Amino acid sequence: MMWSEVYRPMRVQQMIGNEGARLAVVKWLSGWVDGSRPLLLIGPPGIGKTTLVHTLSQQFNYDLIELNASDNRNKIGLQNRIMPMFHNAGLFGRKMLLFLDEVDGISGREDTGGIDSLITIMKEPTIPVIMAANTKNTKIKDLAKICKVIELTSIPPRLLMIYLDHILKEENEKLSPDEKVSVVNNSKGDIRSMLNNAQSKCAGYNSTHSETFEIDIAEAINGYFSKSELEEAKNFLSQADAAYLDPRFGMSAEERRKDMINALFSSIVSSPIDLSGLADALDVLSKIDVIVGRIGQYRYWRLMKYLDVMIAYGLFSSTRQKGI
Ligand SMILES: Nc1ncnc2c1ncn2[C@@H]1O[C@H](COP(=O)(O)OP(=O)(O)O)[C@@H](O)[C@H]1O
Ligand SMILES: [Mg+2]
Fold first, then answer.
1. Does residue 208 lie within any of the structural domains?
2. Ligand 1 centroid, distance to 137 Cα (angstroms)
3. Which one of 26, 119, 130, 311 is most buried, by most CB atoms within 10 A?
């Protein structure tokens, strides 16, 4: 298991660096009212932008809806996914937080208006919206004009060194002072890259690429919703690198990222599905959620293997050809 995943902070207080920026994000979220400007986080990779949004949504009890702008599921246009969600926000009876990660990935695409259409939609959000970008290119500057912008910076070497020592101690591993300095300097302020390098140094460079036939959760969900044959659709779900989590227990940001029920929820509520289809689909999801909770409560782990089938069959008819 990658250290960068094992040590992904679960609470905002466990993160290092960018204290002022983190505080500003917390303030923005707690002061959010209908019509507040969306938040745009700008900063280099590996410093915790994605982690920050995951931990906060959990700590503030939001249902996180994540849309990856460069995901091909969004070929119908971000606008078509976001608008219905803004309209229906009040119906869900839960606090929702929309997260558009890596929005600078959009600007290169010529289709669907890209950032320009995003700017139009983001003028009047009805739920809190956070966007994250790595760089401040020209397009992102336009977007920034209608956002509250919080910039994060790379992590200073001194802090990285302290953090590295802490992780090595946790792992019961040792690196020489020279090796540590080189790991810290090579990371250029990117915590993920620092942890990856340290881990491969400790392991004596083993490339642990386990042979796996699992597919990314987004790909699995795309496949499920796009197939017209039930069996074919079901196969996608059972291949997913996904987890079914007991909603009663806290989960790490990494677990949330693989949480099948949450991923399905995000896909459905951000689609142009009609209201009765939406109601049917959410009804199925909430039942599955209850079942997962019971399985956890009574420890009937062997029942877990039926969940893919329950979801695949339960959601199938209400979600065909709905542009999810
Ligand atoms: N501020 C931080 N404090 C502690 N660990 C961090 C921090 N930022 C990143 N990491 C580590 O790096 C990994 C990647 O972070 P991520 O949030 O995906 O960064 P970004 O979205 O800025 O690229 C996390 O899983 C975590 O292990
Ligand atoms: Mg990220």
1. no
2. 22
3. 130
191 Cβ inside 6 Å of ligand 1: yes
Q: Please give the residue range of the domain that contains residue 104.
A: 18-151
Rounded to the nearest angstrom, the distance between the alpha carbon of 8 and the centre of ligand 1 is 6
CA 237 – ligand 2 centroid, Å: 25
Q: Which two tokens stand for residue 209?
A: 């690429």
Spatial separation of the C-alpha atoms in residues 159 and 186, rounded to whole Å:
14
Mutation to probe ligand 1, out of 192, 197, 254, 258 (largest number of atoms < 8 A from CB) = 192
Tens of pLDDT, residues 34-67: 889 999 999 999 999 999 999 999 999 999 998 8
Inter-CA distances, 30 with 43, 62, 163, 184, 253, Å: 22, 11, 29, 35, 20
| Predicted confidence (pLDDT) per residue in 111-166, tens digit | 555 788 888 889 889 999 999 999 888 889 999 999 999 999 999 999 999 999 99
Question: Which ligand has the shortest distance to the CA of 66?
Answer: 2
What CATH number is associated with residue 27? 3.40.50.300
Q: How many of the other CB atoms lie within 10 Å of CB of 87?
A: 10
**Ligand 1 atom 6: the closest Cα is on which residue?**
48
Residue length of the chain? 324
Question: Three-state SS for 243?
Answer: strand
End-to-end CA distance of the chain: 32
DSSP for 181-217? HHHHHHHTT-HHHHHHHHHHHHTTS---------B-H
